[in-house]
Design goal:
The protein has eight helices and 18 strands. The protein is of the alpha/beta class and 390 residues long. The protein folds into two domains: 167 residues, FAD/NAD(P)-binding domain, CATH 3.50.50; 145 residues, 2-Layer Sandwich (D-Amino Acid Oxidase, Chain A, domain 2). Strands 5-6-4-12-13-14-11-15 form an eight-stranded mixed β-sheet, with helices on both faces. Strands 8-2-1-9-17-16 form a six-stranded mixed β-sheet, with helices on one face. It has a two-stranded antiparallel sheet with strand order 3-7. A hairpin with a 4-residue loop joins strand 16 and strand 17. The C terminus is likely disordered. The structure holds glycine. The site of glycine has 9 residues, from loops.
Length: 390
């Protein structure tokens, strides 16, 4: 079978790797591999602390993917000869003010619905787990099974693994999916997925019938990368926190890199504006939780684009007999790599219903090309800016 995959982010490459392992002839198309969310993401694999109200249908798939991650990481390291920075360290969620503590208690209710391990901690117990926490921290919640991985290392390893598996990478854009020389096409282009006007159905076969598109919206996020210098201590856990009602997360790698994220707004593909304020906010919040961060070297400010959908659940499933969607992973692209790759490989292998029905890419009907997939945005006549827990 000949398979064309549109998008060489980590989702597209993982699908390509699995399809090649199953014996398919695979070509991945992307003018700039890894230029979407894959190399900006912090890398949290967080079925508990990335649980959000209204997104409960994601829970079992997140859990399945999180449980698959240790084996996936080992297999990818063996196939690529490269390390992927998988870390089996717990996540702490903490707050500094009464309001923040109330927010954590509200979140903890939701975390308990995930049926995974969650422990309430006193401030003293939280500092025992994470000695770098500020003395102002007012206790919190421990999620011992939320882990992390290094998304850049994962993307680099996937590029090596697909090459070794015989996958062809074409660094050119794709205009017309119908013209691709393939039996099956997988759209895994993250925020770029909305550009494939006419994706799915008969519309795929010609631009003249291009009437609709995939309902993916761009949710921008600013992320900082810092580095501990010399013998400076780094957090030994992933720390998520609420500071005066605003969220922040701090993810540490074995190599001393400390990632602080992330803002969330809907200004489209804008890599420039608002970054000064974003850096200020993220540093202030993270330093309130872990004062040591003020001593680190700020290495990088990056802007990434999360592919959101109207219900924030991914689009994974068949669009027609030739086309599969594997996109719209919003805040959870890295966490969902193993389960998405497995589901799409099963769909390519002819297994109907391999992806959860809640992720059916046609569940919103067909979004008119040029219209925002989010009715609120249409009503407002443009993009809105929001800050939220991410
Ligand atoms: N998963 C974290 C974020 O999207 O910022």
């Amino acid at each position: 079978m000949r398979i064309a995959i549109v998008g060489a982010g980590s989702i597209g490459l993982a699908v390509a790797w699995r399809a090649a392992q199953a014996g398919a002839e695979v070509v991945v198309h992307d003018p700039d591999p890894g230029s979407g969310a894959s190399r900006v993401a912090a890398g949290m694999i967080a079925p508990v602390t990335e649980a959000h109200y209204g997104e409960e249908a994601l829970g079992p798939f997140m859990a399945e993917s999180a449980d698959a991650w240790p084996g996936f990481a080992r297999e990818l390291e063996a196939a690529s000869g490269l390390q992927v920075g998988f870390r089996d360290v717990p996540t702490l969620v903490v707050g500094v003010e009464d309001g923040d503590r109330a927010e954590i208690e509200r979140q903890a209710e939701l975390y308990r619905f995930t049926a995974r391990n969650v422990e309430a901690l006193s401030p003293r117990a939280a500092r025992k787990v994470e000695p770098l926490l500020s003395h102002r921290v007012r206790g919190g919640v421990l999620a011992p099974e939320d882990r992390a991985v290094d998304p850049r290392a994962v993307h680099t390893a996937l590029l090596a693994a697909v090459e070794r598996a015989g996958v062809m990478l074409r660094c050119k854009g794709v205009d017309d999916l119908g013209a691709l020389d393939a039996d099956q096409v997988v759209i895994a282009a993250g925020c770029g997925s909305a550009e494939f006007i006419g994706a799915g159905g008969g519309a795929l076969r010609g631009a003249e019938s291009a009437l609709w598109t995939l309902p993916v919206r761009t949710v921008r996020g600013v992320v900082l990368r810092l580095r501990a210098v010399g013998a400076q201590p780094v957090p030994r856990t992933t720390v998520r926190g609420y500071v005066k009602g605003h969220s922040v997360y701090i993810v540490t790698r074995e190599n001393g890199e400390v990632v602080v994220g992330a803002t969330s707004d809907e200004r489209g593909f804008d890599r420039l504006t608002g970054t000064a304020g974003a850096v200020h906010d993220l540093l202030r919040r993270s330093i309130e939780l872990v004062p040591e961060i003020a001593e680190y070297h700020l290495e990088e400010v990056s802007v990434g684009f999360r592919p959101g959908t109207p219900d924030n659940l991914p689009l994974i499933g068949r669009l027609d007999e030739r086309t599969i969607a594997a996109t719209g992973h919003y805040r959870n692209g890295i966490a969902l790599i193993p389960a998405t790759a497995a589901a799409v490989a099963a769909l390519l292998g002819g297994e109907e219903g391999a992806a959860p029905a809640a992720f059916d890419p046609l569940r919103f009907g067909r979004t008119r090309a040029g219209a925002s997939p989010d009715p609120d945005l249409n009503a407002a006549g443009g993009a809105t800016t929001q800050e939220e827990d991410s």
